[in-house]
Amino acid sequence: MHSFSKQISRLLLCLSLISICHFLILQFQLPVRFNLLLTGALGIGVLIVFLKATAPLPVFSYSVPWQLALVLLFFATAFLFRTRKYGGWDATGIYHLAANYLTHPQAWKNMWLLPRQHGDYPLFLGSLIGFFRQLFPCIPTYQFGYCLSALFTLAIPCLLFVELRTKSLFLAWAALLAFFANLFYLNSGINQYADIPLAGFTLLAFIALQHLKDKGNPNLIWLCWTALGAMIWTKNEGIFYAAVFILFQVKPLFRFTKARPVSFLYFLLFVLSLILLKHGAHQNDLFQHARSASAWSEALRIEKFKTILVFLTTKFVGTFPIVALLFFAYLLQSAYCKRVPARLFWMVMSFVIGIVCVYMLSPYGLRWHLATSATRLLLQVSIPLTYVLAQGWPRKNPKTSS
Prior knowledge:
The protein is mainly α. The chain has helices spanning 3-26, 32-53, 66-82, 89-102, 124-135, 141-164, 169-180, 183-190, 195-215, 220-232, 236-248, 250-257, 263-280, 285-290, 293-299, 302-319, 321-336, 343-360, 366-391. The protein has a domain at 3-281.
């Protein structure tokens, strides 16, 4: 695993650990200064164990290619000039609003009294921004959201580039430009959608798993379990993605967990936080609708399935053309070589099947639901899919003469 990837991975996962520590301490409803003190003590303890467990990892490294540094500078500038400081509706109506409540230990549960608050949404962003609001009360909420969103938006393509550079420089540049040159991706970051952090944590889980299998370093299991926990703490979709990930990779995950059993406790911390959240929150409308017999009779209509499939395919090809090109090239190459696609590929396809099932059972108007959320769900899947497709590409043998 490249040193740059390790540093970025640890930074992003440490943010998720701070988020759950802050949320867990809020359960005691202590005054702000005691809340900060306990959060700091718990957070520092958890982070020290995490950082030591993932060692030996270098603290600083300047081995980032200069080409990547130039591209990052260019798109960071583009991000800055295109940005809306308050973000989109998700940022102002869900995460920033939740953060304002999560700043006050005695009153944070009141956020569930708001009818349009989406209280069932996991609180990675809300809790993390709330913690920083307590730490720096003079800084507006939206500035924390902006900085976090910019960090994830710029880090994900860099992670793809650095990890794929040893595989193929062409694929690394294709992955970098697939998102840095994609207006929908940049706009999602500008709008501070939680889809970007979710995709980032999913990518980290895939990267950690790949290196775990290749190198057998049990220290990487810490990164993998923490990334899976961060997924379920970021969005509801992450709960499904993490469950699929564990089902597909149960043998390697638990084989390496035997060597580092404490690493599983990090995942359980996220699960505990999610249970506490779901216990007090309103029930998800999709689950309420799925209990009715009419929902299942509607879901089994072939016309509905065709509409969803055509819409998702069209959006995928139109919004992520480079990823779509890699996808179809990968399928053609697998067919030509008479090779079954890798397990990781089928894992991502299971994510897509889950997305289709959500729309089949949706309580909302199908076309409206597709128009408002399908592209964002495809974004969540496209980032780990790009990594999987590139990993499945045959490595060029330098000893073979042309």
